[in-house]
Amino acid sequence: MRPCSPGLIPTSKLRLCLNRARLTRARLLQPGAHEDHDVRIRTLRGVLFIVLVAAFLAPRALDAERAVFRSSSHTLSLFALPGETITFDLASYAGLPVRMLPSIGVVADKHLQVVLHDHRFQVAAPRQPGIYGVLLQEPAPDKKVKPLPYRMQVVVMRSADDAQSGVLNGYPLGTFPSSGDGERWRFERPRGFVEITEANRNIPLTDHFRLGDLDCKLERPYPHYAVIQTSLLVKLEGLVDVLNRRGLPGKHMKIMSGFRTPDYNREIGNETTYSRHIAGDAADIFLDRNNDGRMDDLNRDGRVNRRDAGLLLSIVEGMDESPEYGALVGGASAYRANASHGPFLHVDARGYPARW
Q1: Each residue's pLDDT tens digit, 336-353
Q2: Which among 18, 87, 157, 161 could bridge 192 via Cys, Cβ 3.0 to 4.6 Å?
């Protein structure tokens, strides 16, 4: 499984920047040049700065759900269409030495065949949409208690081609926008949709989040359908881990809003055409240790307000700048309370930083 690209620079733009840098350097080194040493250094630094900014702001790869991230969650969900091959790099995900992989015990759903190829586990998605599990067990060191196994959830989606006029199996999905490859937001229409039913909505996608947590709040009979990205799930689990280590109740994180259909997104007053909620890689979250349905007093100032959401925002910003979670960089914003909900944090994994 290939790692998430930290950023892609259009080849033509990068070549142009580098050529300009070479020309600038050549001119500065010509005999008789009038620029002094300080001007030369400032110019070269300016060109280098432009190249680095171009690298930072360039559109990023959207194949994040196929990428591998280090995570503390022992449950990972990967999404595929029927018949596709899923590759899982357990060594990178769990921080295991490659030499240990042949000794990993595999217990898979009867519909799955798991093979180890090129230091990665591969499995072909069944033809029938659904959720299929694979347990990957590390051997016990020196006959001690076995470590907690890793569970890979193979989530087989319904193809987007199955939807007719924005409706899939009676569920109104609506029309999804699409942008070109060169656009800043790099929004792409979904390839498929996860089926959510009364029977499977409590199936865990990660250690702390269930399938139903990401369901659209649109009130319709089951089955429902949603777009869910692995990148969002891993980022949320990473945030849970960071919060717990800082003494905050990360394990009590609640998702107020996950996936939204385009129509539902407009119905609740969101006028953003390219909302990350309809892309499946965004969630509105809050911490709720006392289960009162509202944000806790995280900064312990005796009040629950936007500052508590702002504390979460500062932590997410640190994650976005870190080597561990930088590949999951995205948008984030703290919101104040209103009549219908308490303060909360929007967080997503769109592939480039955004604040508002």
Answers
A1: 999 889 999 999 999 999
A2: 157
